[in-house]
């Protein structure tokens, strides 16, 4: 029997007092993030505090998170195999649906193999340190997703962060790193806060010349670009370039989890060395089965991304006509509207929300100071009138 005793916090306060001070300073700068309860509804809507809004702040680009076929697959898997996987994949958590999903991803992407991770974040955190370490040099675009940056740091390789798309710098750094054991270039394929595309063909050229490994995070390209939504790498004809591709099951695929694709050897290596999948419980059977069904849907319908991509084009044109600075690739479902300062960005987001439209308000530290923005994401689930209404509100607000 363990007895609990009263605890004294002492006279001088708690060593955690700094937290409330830090939070107060976040408040002052308008940087304190609030968590809300968001209840998803059909057609890309949601309910918050009793109000129904169009959700332009999610990543469910294809509307697959609520697709009845996907939901049914996850329900069936939970009924058959239980709610949890019970162990890491290496121990006993790799159920038949996990194995089926690995095969499905490999066949879909025309690669030898795939390894599953608990999330896209975990895929990056596990993969980079499995491939680079002390004595290696890792080159990382400054706008890469936080999980890539964290993976680079965790690897203990020498980290060189290059300004966005600055391939001359990459070239020079690779030349300097000629004696390193390994050279690794790490990049998003679609940049998550800017909606633009990495110059992958040029990166491939540099990597070939310098014998560098390339790791490409296809989180936002998966389901959107490439034949059957296989990603930007195949879209650009680089499927045979030997890139190590990382993806998430949690965005366009409407489920949860991450994956890495590549050669059989690469997969075996990650299976043996990527700590975030070795020491974490396997995906729930429901998540694996949902992702498997979503990829099946993509495989059978090559044009499923067309609706989201054409909505993105329409929205970009409409906002540019109204004088807004819109960034990114014309048909990318991530539509960033650059505002600049934090209060104006928050103001616009509040105006939109009051009118029934939920959008992301992106501020530091997610983006550099002075580049705060609205991040609007379109989904195939949105009907055209939702887009029109959003544009009308922004029209009235003027840039
Ligand atoms: C969202 C995202 C991730 C993380 O994926 P999760 O499955 O949500 O953990 C990784 N990389 C990029 C570029 C992302 O946008």
Order of helices and strands: HEEEHHHEHEHEHEHEHEEHHHHEEHEEH
- The first-level CATH class of the largest domain is given as Alpha Beta
- Integer-rounded radius of gyration: 22 Å
Number of domains: 2
Taking the alpha carbons of the first and last residues, their distance comes to 65 Å
**Uncertain regions spanning at least 5 consecutive residues:** none
**CATH-defined superfamily of the largest domain:** Type I PLP-dependent aspartate aminotransferase-like (Major domain)
List the helices and strands and how they pair.
Elements: H1 17-28, E1 39-41, E2 45-48, E3 51-56, H2 68-81, H3 89-93, H4 96-109, E4 113-117, H5 120-131, E5 137-141, H6 146-155, E6 158-162, H7 167-176, E7 183-188, H8 200-210, E8 213-217, H9 232-235, E9 244-248, E10 258-262, H10 264-273, H11 275-278, H12 285-300, H13 306-321, E11 325-326, E12 334-340, H14 342-354, E13 357-362, E14 372-377, H15 384-397
Parallel strand pairs: 3-13, 5-6, 5-7, 7-8, 8-9
Antiparallel strand pairs: 1-2, 2-3, 4-10, 9-10, 11-12, 12-14, 13-14
Bound molecules: pyridoxal-5'-phosphate (PLP).
Pyridoxal-5'-phosphate binds next to helix 5.
């Amino acid at each position: 029997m363990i007895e609990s005793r009263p605890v004294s916090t002492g006279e001088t306060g708690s060593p955690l007092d700094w937290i409330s001070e830090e939070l107060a300073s976040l408040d002052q700068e308008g940087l304190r993030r609030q968590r809300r309860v968001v209840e998803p509804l059909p057609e890309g809507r949601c309910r918050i505090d009793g109000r129904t809004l169009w959700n332009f702040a999610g990543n469910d680009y294809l509307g697959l998170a609520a697709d009845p076929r996907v939901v049914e697959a996850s329900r069936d898997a939970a009924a058959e195999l239980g709610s949890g996987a019970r162990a890491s994949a290496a121990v006993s958590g790799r159920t038949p649906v996990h194995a089926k999903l690995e095969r499905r991803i490999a066949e879909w992407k025309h690669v030898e193999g795939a390894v599953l991770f608990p999330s896209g974040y975990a895929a990056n955190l596990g993969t980079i340190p499995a491939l680079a370490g002390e004595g290696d040099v890792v080159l990382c675009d400054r706008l890469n997703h936080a999980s890539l940056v964290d993976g680079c740091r965790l690897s203990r390789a020498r980290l060189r962060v290059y300004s966005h798309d600055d391939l001359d710098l990459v070239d020079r750094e690779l030349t300097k790193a000629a004696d390193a054991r390994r050279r690794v270039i790490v990049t998003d394929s679609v940049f998550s806060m800017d909606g633009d595309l990495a110059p992958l063909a040029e990166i491939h050229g540099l990597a070939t010349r310098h014998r560098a490994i390339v790791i490409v995070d296809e989180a936002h390209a998966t389901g959107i670009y490439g034949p059957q939504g296989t990603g930007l790498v195949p879209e650009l004809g680089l499927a045979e370039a030997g890139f190590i591709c990382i993806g998430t099951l949690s965005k366009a695929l409407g489920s949860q989890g991450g994956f890495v694709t590549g050669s059989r050897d690469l997969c075996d290596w990650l299976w043996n060395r990527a700590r975030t999948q070795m020491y974490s419980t396997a995906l729930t059977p429901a998540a694996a089965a949902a992702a498997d069904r979503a990829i099946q849907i993509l495989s059978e319908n090559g044009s499923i991304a067309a609706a989201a991509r054409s909505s993105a084009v329409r929205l970009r044109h409409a906002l540019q006509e109204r004088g807004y600075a819109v960034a990114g690739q014309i048909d990318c479902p991530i539509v960033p509207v650059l505002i600049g300062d934090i209060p104006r960005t928050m103001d616009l987001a509040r105006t939109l929300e009051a009118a029934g439209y939920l959008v992301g308000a992106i501020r530091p530290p997610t983006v550099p100071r002075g580049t705060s923005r609205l991040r609007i994401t379109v989904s195939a689930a949105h009907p055209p009138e939702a887009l029109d209404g959003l544009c009308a509100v922004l029209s009235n607000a003027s840039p």
